[in-house]
Amino acid sequence: MTERKRDHVDIVLGQEVRPKHNHWDDIRLLHQALPEIDLDEIDTRVSLFGAELAAPLIISSMTGGFSDAVRINDRLAAGAAKVGVGMGVGSQRPVLQGQVGEESWTVVTQHDVPLTIANIGAPQLIPQGTKPALAPEDAKRALAMVDGDILAIHLNYTQEIVQPEGDRRARGVLEALQAVAAEVPVLAKETGAGVSREAALQLKDAGVRGIDIGGLGGTSFSAVEYYRAKSEGMSLKERLGETFWEWGIPSPISLRLCQVGLPLVATGGLRNGLDLARAVALGASAGGMASQMLRAAERSAEAVVEELQAVVAELKAVMFLTGCGDVSQLQATRTLLTGPTAEWAHALGMEEG
Ligand SMILES: Cc1cc2nc3c(=O)[nH]c(=O)nc-3n(C[C@H](O)[C@H](O)[C@H](O)COP(=O)(O)O)c2cc1C
C-alpha cells in the first residue's frame, strides 16, 4: 500500500500522465480595455466551508503514508499557511487500517492552514472481499487526525478498475456515504473523471456540503496505473490504463453540470491563475491544484510559496483585465466555450454564458 503511494508520486513527477488536450484552454474570458479599477483594490478573498481564504485556491489531496510524504505534506502545509489557501491530505486509509503511523498526516497540524481537508475513499466505505468497511467513526478519526474542517470522500472508480489491487464493489456506496455525511461535513471528490449532473444531485441528496468535480484534463490515474502495470509486467492492467487514459468528463463541463446549489471545487488540469480564473468564472467557489504543487514541494517549501503566490498574482491580473473587483464579480463574468469543450456543451444541450 505505502509502496503504491510512493509509486504514484514518483510516476507523477517523472512521466507524462495528462491527457493530450487540456479543456481549460477552450474557455475564453473577455478582455476589458477599460477595467475602471485599481489592481491594488482587487480582493481575492473567499470564505469556503467556514474558513476564510486569501484566494479561492486549494492544494488538492495527494499523499501520506511513506517517509517522504512527511516532507511533502510539511512543505505543502507550510506554503498553504503562508499564502492563506486550503490544503487536502492524501487518503488516510492506510493509517485508519493500522498499516502505517500518523506522522505524514499529522504534520499538517504544525502549520496554520486556514482550511484543511481530510481524505478517505468511497470504495472503502463498503466491504471489499475480506477487507472490512471504514465506519463513520473512522471518518471522525480521519478529520481529528489532521484537525480538518471537512472530509473529502474520493470517488475513484476509474483508478480502482485499472489498478492491480483495486476495489471493485460499488453497490451501496451512496448509502454508506450518506451515513458518513450525517456525522461529519463531507466534500465528495472525483479524482480525474468528473461528476455528472445525476451524480451531483444524488450527492446533494445524500447531504454532502460540497463537490470537488475532479474532472478530466489533469493527472490521469489511468495513466499513472498504466506505468505501474508496465513496470510490473501486468499486460491486462497496462492495456486498461492506456484505454482509459482519457476517460471522463472534462473539468469545465463537469463544473457546469454540477451546479446544483452546493459550493464546487474545480480540480483537474489547472496549471496557473488564468485556469483558476476560468474555473471561477464557470461557477467554481475555488480551484484545486495537485501535480503542479507536488512538483514545487519536491523542490522546497519556498518553491510551494512562490508557486502559490504566482497563481494568485495571475488570478489578480485576470480579475483586473476583466474589470472584476472581487471573486463574486469574477463568478458572474461572461465565459466563451470554444473547441472540444464547446462540442461537449453542444452535445449536452448546455447553454453558454
Ligand atoms: C501523487 C498524487 C496522489 C493523489 N492521491 C489522492 C488521494 O489520496 N486522494 C484524492 O482524493 N485524490 C488524490 N489525488 C488526486 C488529486 O487530488 C487531483 O484530483 C488530481 O491530481 C487532479 O489534479 P491535477 O490535475 O492538478 O493534478 C492524487 C494526485 C496525485 C498527483
Protein described:
The chain is an alpha/beta fold. It is 43% helix and 13% strand. It contains 16 helices and 12 strands. It has helices spanning 2-14, 67-83, 93-96, 103-106, 136-145, 157-162, 173-181, 197-205, 221-231, 235-243, 251-257, 273-281, 291-299, 301-321, 327-331, 339-347, and strands at 27-29, 46-48, 51-53, 57-59, 86-88, 115-121, 150-155, 186-190, 210-212, 264-267, 286-289, 335-337. An 8-stranded parallel beta barrel has the order 4-5-6-7-8-9-10-11, surrounded by 7 helices. The protein has a two-stranded antiparallel sheet with strand order 1-12. Strand 2 and strand 3 (51-53) form a beta hairpin. Helix 1 packs across helix 9 (221-231), helix 2 (67-83) packs across helix 13 and helix 13 crosses helix 14. The chain is globular and about 65 Å long. The termini are far apart. 54% of the residues are buried. The structure holds flavin mononucleotide. Flavin mononucleotide binds at residues 8-9, 12, 60-63, 90-91, 119, 152, 154, 189, 191-192, 214, 218-219, 267-270, 289-292, 294.
